[in-house]
TrEMBL record:
PANTHER family: TRANSLATIONALLY CONTROLLED TUMOR PROTEIN-RELATED, TRANSLATIONALLY-CONTROLLED TUMOR PROTEIN. This is Translationally-controlled tumor protein homolog. GO terms for molecular function: calcium ion binding. Residues 1-137 form the TCTP domain. It comes from Macrostomum lignano. It holds the Pfam family TCTP. Belongs to the TCTP family. GO terms for cellular component: cytoplasm.
Length: 171
């Protein structure tokens, strides 16, 4: 869980507190949000058992098709594991689950399942591993050198002495 502030600072809308009368202000509040949902801008969606099974049937067929192309040895294990999980965990406790989709609400995309641990406070998410797309992330630490004059990364700082070499430090 994270806490998100709803406060609006007058500076954000061009206000200057030193030059203006003191206003009434606004009710600044904070909200607790689930960090995964908030950070990835997931949107909660609703299903009943019948509509979820209809969605899931189509989604699992799309995953099977991808596995046929990329990893045919994985198909049987995927089918068995998915059926077992859906029957024993999802359908058995259907009312406990919350369903989320991406902000674009793509009907062909995976629906993320969320439930809470036994303590009732700790959320956990379930995604089908075979429905994820792996992204490789490489960081070049050498490109993150800081320019002491401007306190900006070298790639963002303007260096009049070496304008031709500016692209060497970019990610």
């Amino acid at each position: 869980m994270i806490t998100v502030s709803n406060a609006i600072d007058d500076r954000m809308i061009g206000g200057n507190a030193s030059a203006e009368e003191a206003g009434e202000g606004t009710d600044d509040g904070t909200e607790s949000k689930i960090n995964v949902v908030y950070s990835h801008q997931l949107v909660e969606t609703q299903f009943d058992k019948k509509s979820y099974l209809a969605y899931l049937k189509g989604y699992l067929k799309r995953i099977e098709k991808k596995l046929e192309e990329n990893n045919p040895d994985r198909i049987e294990a995927f089918k068995t594991g998915a059926q077992k999980f859906v029957k024993e965990r999802v359908l058995a406790n259907f009312s406990n689950w919350q369903f989320f989709t991406g902000e674009k609400m793509d009907p062909d995309a995976m629906v993320v399942l969320m439930d809470y641990r036994e303590d009732g406070m700790t959320p956990y998410f379930v995604l089908f591993k075979d429905g994820l797309i792996e992204e490789k992330c490489h960081t070049r630490l050498a490109s993150l050198e800081w320019n002491t004059r401007s306190s900006l990364p070298c790639s963002a700082a303007t260096n009049n002495n070496n304008n031709n070499n500016n692209n060497n430090n970019r990610l």
